[in-house]
């Protein structure tokens, strides 16, 4: 068995050889430089690593991967480090190399006729959105972490976000990929084709695989026509059934214009107003339930103001809406959306929280929120339920904040009990225990349980075929086998 001195020699040799491949700027070894890469956003995981690899291009990465594979060194890819499930964290052994794609941040091409963009994995999502806008197009993937999440990360996790109801998840916005495989081979599948029936759709294997099969280095992204008309409303509704009823009204009137429909509880909005400076309720009175409606169209004469006023007027008469505020400017749109986007940060400031990213059929969202809240309150009186999210696509973040009189550590010790309660409800409603956050380090045991049988075995076979040594992001998606 290697001694501690042997480990140091092996580590030093590895770092020296990696530096020769990627240069001084391509590797971080000082403890102070590595530290930001070793903790996740939620503070759930704190890992160790001998170095952080930062290649400048695909060839440098491929060369480094060949070396790492030959030394049987595991690799943990990391984008913007915004994972909610510890998907980009190394373990505590100090033997896993963190791979940052931050330097691979070029937009290689934008074609406004094809409506495509070729972006490298390290491109920040917001930068991709801005580049598309400059070309007169829209890259519609939008989420709270878009200022730090990267293209490689959102594809590797098949991110959803706010506009899934209209544009789909990241998977639906990707036409082709460039991927470095575990052995250092480069697969160039950067095809801009809408139709390509030539065998297996390999690109889909890597989207949502959380870096366990290979490393996405670039992607062909699908753009859409930019909106020239937009209307946003913040509404108080009497109950969950009314929220769903309002969604149906907008969908049935003009499904093509509905780009987001977000639910928020009174508790959640209250936490935002309490903890986030500069936020304000745009309505005369507080309510127990709110929704945010976002309509957009590429046609400047789409008549969205008439549409939103008509639908809200009908809903007011039917008792489905108590009050509503329609944004009159871009600044007001941003203010209304901030009430939704600051939910995660306000929960963090309010105390310890347990997060459940789940989905059910859209028609069963009210049942999910009602039953999961009741189950959690039975388990822990005084708990604060903060359900919010994408009612229009069935994805609700069924979150809970600690009771005010409870210590954070004691609350977090019951995390899995709370998740079990929520998941029992989700399973009874034919839902999924992970809607858009993925599996990461937090939920591999749930995957084995929920997807047992042929589905789970097929996943394991794919993993074994592409990454037989198990060096790609170990411990994520699949549990590490016990020896």
Automatic annotation (TrEMBL):
Gene3D superfamilies per UniProt: 3.30.465.10, 3.30.70.2190, 3.30.70.2740, Uridine Diphospho-n-acetylenolpyruvylglucosamine Reductase, domain 2 (3.30.43.10), Vanillyl-alcohol Oxidase, Chain A, domain 4 (1.10.45.10)
InterPro entries found in the cross-reference section: FAD-bd_oxidored_4_C, FAD-bd_PCMH, FAD-bd_PCMH-like_sf, FAD-bd_PCMH_sub1, FAD-bd_PCMH_sub2, FAD-linked_Oxase-like_C, FAD-oxidored/transferase_4, Oxid_FAD_bind_N
Positions in coiled-coil regions: none
Flavoprotein keyword on record: yes
Domain of life from the UniProt record: Bacteria
Domain (FAD-binding PCMH-type): residue spans on this chain: 45-226
Entry's Gene Ontology BP terms: respiratory electron transport chain
GO MF annotation: an example: FAD binding
PANTHER family in alphabetical order: BLL6224 PROTEIN, D-2-HYDROXYGLUTARATE DEHYDROGENASE, MITOCHONDRIAL
Assigned protein family: Belongs to the FAD-binding oxidoreductase/transferase type 4 family.
Name the record gives this protein: FAD-binding oxidoreductase
